[in-house]
Structure formats: structure tokens, C-alpha cells
Amino acid sequence: MKPAAFDYHAPSSAEETVALLAELGEGAKILAGGQSLIPMLALRLAAFDHLVDIGRIAGLAGIEVAADAVTVGAGTIQVRIEADAELAAAVPLLSRATPWIGHFQIRNRGTLGGSLAHADPAAEYPAVALAMDAELETLSPRGRRRIAAADFFTGFWSTALEGDEMLVSVRFPRWTGRCGFAVREFARRHGDFAVAGAAVAVGLDADDRVERCGIALIGMGSAPVRASRAEAVLTGEKTPLDGAEIGAMAVAHLDGIPSDTHGPAEYRRQVGAAMVARAWTDAMSEAVNA
Question: Do strands 210-218 and 158-159 pair parallel, antiparallel, or not at all (unpaired)?
Fold first, then answer.
């Protein structure tokens, strides 16, 4: 199939983009890397009167590493994130999640901001943003604002972005001290969307107690999910901790787990628990030996 007819726009700046969005209204859609949007248009799963291509706006791409955080432009392509050694040292979870995204050809076009704004609950970057308490900076004709990742994802393929607003950058806090990070997921074939997965960050104090942790789940709800209840229980606990128990705890209170062609909801719950257990074990091993 082919997409429904649309008008194409290629603004030269972020300011021009949001002005255009305000002018065009609800019939406009931003096109970033296009790795999710174009297939949806081709299959007629979505249709828009206007596509606003931001792929050539140079100011939207880039990686800035500071002492307390790393800021990544929304237009930064995924292979650049994957290959940046300084970013990998500063925010390991973001770097380690990237190779799980599709195939190299997809990552060569897909962008950080495109993935986050698409808000697919089976995608890796939304889980990383949640686990790391990222802040997403947006721009509209009214100016800029920052949205916590916990408030950004509002439902299936939906976010807190207003119709005349675009994502311009993402700020990931740097964790220091005895920390460990891991991503685990299960898919039918390499490059497929995950049946379930987990992104885990953990920090230990000098007494081997969990000082802080982030556990985000992939493919386990209608929106990206964070296992906040499990994190609250784990914080302050002394290692070693049983990974299987943590995995079960992380998925115990989840509602609305998808049931689809990959399997029923209970199957996905079991897979999700196993992925949390493995990611927690990996992250904890790294933290203990840091």
C-alpha cells in the first residue's frame, strides 16, 4: 500500500517548525527519522494532511557531556549514540539499550527524539528515559519547558506534547559511585519488537545497600512502565538480593499487560519477570565490582 496524500514541509529551524505546527493544526505530524511513522503511513494505520520534516535541522542533533548530566539533541541518530564512547561512560544505560533497537539500517536513520515522541511501550528508549529520570525539553511558540519522563508518556503512542510543541533535547542525569546498568529483552527474532524486557540502573552505598535504583519495563503495558513499587521496597536493602524475587515483584502489580499474537498476558508477565531478574543480576554484579 501507499500512504494517503499529504503536503510536505521542510522547515529550517525548530522555531519555524513550531510556528508551522501552530498554523497547520491537528492535521500536521512531525517526521523525524521516519522509521516508525513511514511504515504506519504506508499501511494506512495513520494519515495526516501535512508532514513536517525536521530531519535536516542541524541544531537538533548533538551530544553534550557535562559533569552532572548528558544532554542529547532530539534529532541525534541512534548510531551516533551507539558509537559515542564518552556518552557510554557517562550514561551507560542509554548506550547499552541502543543495539537492541531493530537493525543497523534502522538505527542509521532513527532518532532519539523520534523514538521518545512515538512512545511505543515496546521500545527501548522510553524505558531508559524512565529508569534514569530523564527530563525532556520541548519548544512551542510559547517558549521552552521541561517535562519529567514520568509525566511525558501518557498512553499508547501518546505523550504530554501539545499539538504545536516539539521535542528538542533530552537530559540524562549522570550516576556516580558504585553503579551498575543493564538491559535485557526477549524477542522472537533479532530486531523484532520485544515480547518483554527491562532496563535497570542500581547504585550501592559503601555498606552494599541499594542507595537508589530504576527499573523500567518494556512491552508490559499500554504505555512505558516503571516498577516504582519494587524500587521503593529495594531501596535501603542490603545485597545480595534474589533476582527472581525482584523480577516477580516488579511485575506483580501490573494491570493491562498486552495479550496478542506473541502470547497471552500471563506469558508476557512471566517473560517480563525473567528479563527484570536477568537485568538486575547484571546491573548488581557491575555495581558490586565498581
Answer: unpaired
Q: How far apart are CA 28 and CA 275, in angstroms?
A: 38
Question: Does residue 1 lie in a domain region?
Answer: no
Q: Please give the grid coordinates belonging to residue 135.
A: 527530563
> What digits encode the pLDDT tens for the residues 262-274?
889 999 999 999 9
Residues 72, 181, 95, 54, Cα dihedral to 10°:
-40
DSSP 8-state class, residue 146: E
Q: Are residues 104 and 71 both part of a single domain?
A: yes
Question: Does the residue 237 lie in any domain?
Answer: yes
Place of cell 556518552: 87
CA distance 198 to 228: 13
Distance of CA 77 to the CA centre of its chain: 14
What pLDDT does residue 193 have? 84
CB atoms within 10 A of CB 62: 14
Report pTM. Answer: 0.95
Q: pLDDT tens for residues 33-73?
A: 998 898 898 888 889 999 999 999 989 999 999 999 999 99
Q: Which three cell numbers stand for residue 211?
A: 542507595
On whether residue 29 sits in a domain, the answer given is: yes
Dump the DSSP string for 175-224.
P-SEEEEEEEEE-SSTTSPPSEEEEEEEEE-TTSBEEEEEEEEESSSSS-
pLDDT per residue over 178-220, tens digit each? Answer: 999 999 999 988 878 899 999 999 999 999 999 999 999 999 9
| Cβ atoms 124, 98 nearer than 8 A | yes
Number of domains in the chain: 3
Alpha-carbon distance of 169 to 67, in angstroms, equals 17
| Torsion angles phi and psi, residue 16, rounded to 5 | -65, -35
Please give the grid coordinates belonging to residue 111: 532518532
Residue 132, C-alpha cell as written in the block? 534514569
Hey, how many other C-beta atoms are within 10 angstroms of the C-beta on 3? 17
